[in-house]
Amino acid sequence: MIARGHDGIRLTLLYSSPVSSATSAPGAFDRFSRFTLLPARAIISPMTTSHLLLAAWLLIFGFGLLLRALNLRHLKRYGAVVPDGFQDAVNQATLAKTSAYTLEQSRVGLVESIPDAALLILFLFGGLLPRYDQWVATLTDSFILRGLLFFLILSGVQLIVSIPFSLYSTFRLEARYGFNTTTPRIWFTDLVKSTLLSLLLMGLLLSGALALVQASPLRWWLWVWLFFACVTIFLMYLSPYVIEPLFNKFEPVTEEGLAEEITALMIKGGLTVSKVQQVDASKRSRHSNAYFTGIGRVKRIVLYDTLISRMSHREILAVLAHEVGHWKLGHIRQRLIMTEFSALAISFLSWWLIGSGLLPPLFGLPPAPESSFMAQLLLLSFLGTLAGFPLTPLSSWLSRRHEWQADRFAMKLCNDPGALASALVKLSTENLSNFHPHPFYALWHYSHPPVVQRVARLREG
């Protein structure tokens, strides 16, 4: 849904016949039989492996809770300390408000994770998945339609579960700390638009991918990856003109002289931008931001109207110079390439695992075709969360490294180190960012360096 977001266990399983079709069409995947495992004595029983997988997930979930607790304890200990370089912008009242906001955000996130965790455990380990899979199979004999129903119904359940938390976060938490400006009508129309858009995009993507799976049992991993990659790039072109205007109003920057200064900065940085626009973000929130959107000649700069109203021109230019740095240093291209190579590897591994017949027994489920292709994709998604867990700090480190590099680029481009530091102080103070995250929590989760460290490094030059 559009919303506001492979650890292998080596084992031998008892098999004596070729792997059956993963679809409802007999014989559609007969060629997968070359992955059939030879008869062997089970080293680890299916029940044991499912317990191990559940234990691994619970350990990861518990680790997340521990990190959250460490972060809040650290904030309680140091939250009243005014950071160096923030004396002119932060007082004790601001620090108290920031601590309370961070604490409440964390509590809401914790409460929201509980039903998600309970549903996941019941669905994958409580016997609901095979029953759901069999029920969907009774609705249609079409492989593609069955896949659409399988995932769209699950997405609908996730949406329903998330709605109360979205309402609370928007109209209680954000409102209590002075950020929310949206109305129930805007919130509801956003929900309807995003849901319909998600249904459309998900329907097209799933239909296309499942059609490729059905048409090419031995090569679908390559065609599906290529299909998704092309759609991703296409949406990067399409989004600024079709998707983003569905939710916000975009117009040329109205601040006198600002557009000309931004254009001059882009020329100096060697970047071609088609448009410099502002967006009416203030009708939903008082949070501030700026971003680049699109790709190639469609690329444009978008400034929140809240950002324009609160910052000087030199601070705005410094923020944009940082974004220019990401483009000029190739960070956007690098991330896109890394994402696509990872997606290709995951696609191939998914094809191999589904063809091997390993997945259902690993979770104590019946083999294909009793466990459908869609059910096995869901099992793969769960395994992906386990495998991705140790990669989280590496991904965060790489992102923070790019941010440091973009900061240095911005200092050189603007020849004004103090401007970006001043902008970051304003952004973090006005957005009630946590000035004192626990170092290990930041190491694991922060995609940007902690703001106090960034400001200190910028002011050192």
Oligomer: single chain
How many strands, what sense, and barrel or not for the largest sheet?
4 strands, mixed
Q: State the secondary-structure class.
A: mainly alpha
> Radius of gyration over alpha carbons?
25 Å
Helix content: 55-70%
Mean pLDDT: 86
Strand order of the largest sheet: 1-2-4-3
The low-pLDDT segments are 1-44
Q: How much of the sequence is in beta strands?
A: under 5%
- Order of secondary-structure elements: HHHHHHEHEEEHHHHHHHHH
Q: End-to-end span in angstroms?
A: 43 Å
What's the β-strand tally?
A: 4
Shape descriptor reads globular
**Count of helix runs:** 16
Write up this protein.
Residues 1-44 have low confidence and may be disordered. The protein has helices spanning 46-78, 92-125, 128-137, 143-176, 184-215, 220-238, 258-269, 305-310, 313-328, 331-356, 359-362, 373-388, 392-414, 417-430, 439-445, 451-460, and strands at 250-252, 275-279, 290-293, 300-304. It is mainly alpha-helical and 461 residues long. Helix 2 (92-125) packs antiparallel against helix 4 (143-176) and helix 14 (417-430) runs antiparallel to helix 16 (451-460). It starts with 45 loop residues before the first helix and ends with a helix. The longest helix has 34 residues, at 92-125. It contains 16 helices and four strands. Helix content is 64%, strand content 4%. It has a four-stranded mixed sheet with strand order 1-2-4-3. A hairpin with a 6-residue loop joins strand 3 and strand 4 (300-304). It has a domain at 46-88 and 322-461.
